[in-house]
Amino acid sequence: MRRIADPLYMPGSGLTAEEIYAQALPLTGTPGQAYAERRCVPAEIAAAAGVRFDPDFAGRPAVVVPMRDHGGILTAVHGRYLHATRYQNKMLTIGTGGGAVAILNGWQAKPLILVEGLFDALSLAVCGWASIATIGRPIARLAELASGRIIWAAFDTGRSGETTAAAYRNRLPEAVMHRLPPPPRCKDWNTALVKRGPDVVSKWLRTHLTTGE
Predict the structure, then answer these.
(1) Is the pTM value of this prediction over 0.85?
(2) Which of 95, 129, 155 is where one domain is finished?
(3) Residue 188 forms part of a structural domain
(4) Cβ proximity of 135 and 121 under 8 Å
(5) Dist CA 106 CA 82 (whole Å)
(6) What does the pLDDT look like over 110-140, one tens digit per residue?
(7) Which of 119, 144, 155, 172 has the smallest CB count inside 10 Å?
């Protein structure tokens, strides 16, 4: 897994991750709510997961969410832009490393499900499953936290997802690792939610996570 050098402070303003998240707006009634709902994530589920709206996240509107360590300490804020041109980044993360986005008490959930992005985790939450979104970054003390636990590597379909799953299998030798890709012909969990709907995705999750297949 590559290490990503995220800026510690917001470019231009010098704000810390804590300050950025504190100044962000509640999601309801903002363009961020409309964005989440276009991706089939109800506003109440996104808001309960800590998603907020920042109209000026390094110059563009974004939905933002805190990344925290296993003890709940905020380590970074992750933003997903509402719009991006071909030459613009879709995401930006500000802060120190080591945290993740835990949805529905994901750290304590059994089994522990690891996904890639914020909307992957929110899509699983729509179906009633807790997860941890890595945002493509290393998680501090994960090997210790995963030891002896059942871990599902629910990363994207295709070579990148398989490579990421293999990397976690190597990094978590004391865990019981399983692979769980999204449903067929869906590159990620949010694509599955939008294309197939929550009933189909829920059945896929329930079938695999309860049978261990």
Answers:
(1) yes
(2) 95
(3) yes
(4) no
(5) 25
(6) 999 999 999 999 999 999 999 999 999 999 9
(7) 144
